[in-house]
Amino acid sequence: MIPQVLAFITTYRCNFSCDHCSVSAGPERREVLAAGVMQRVMVAAS
To answer: Rounded to two decimals, what is the model's pTM?
Structure first.
């Protein structure tokens, strides 16, 4: 089955610190998804 939607969380930094956040994002987080990783995932998904 070919995915019809591909979504990326490009950063975990967020102005909020919601208890219900599925990725534990918050203002102190600094991780960023590299563009090369996104590109490889898109190629693999197509």
So the answer is: 0.64
Distance between CA atoms of 16 and 5, rounded to whole angstroms?
26
15 contact partners, CB below 8 Å, separation of at least 6: 27
Provide the sign of the torsion angle of the four alpha carbons 33, 36, 39, 45, taken in this order. negative
Q: What is the pLDDT of residues 7-33, one digit of tens each?
A: 999 999 999 999 999 999 999 999 999
In Å, what is the CA distance from 26 to each residue of 9, 22, 33, 35, 42? 13, 11, 15, 21, 26
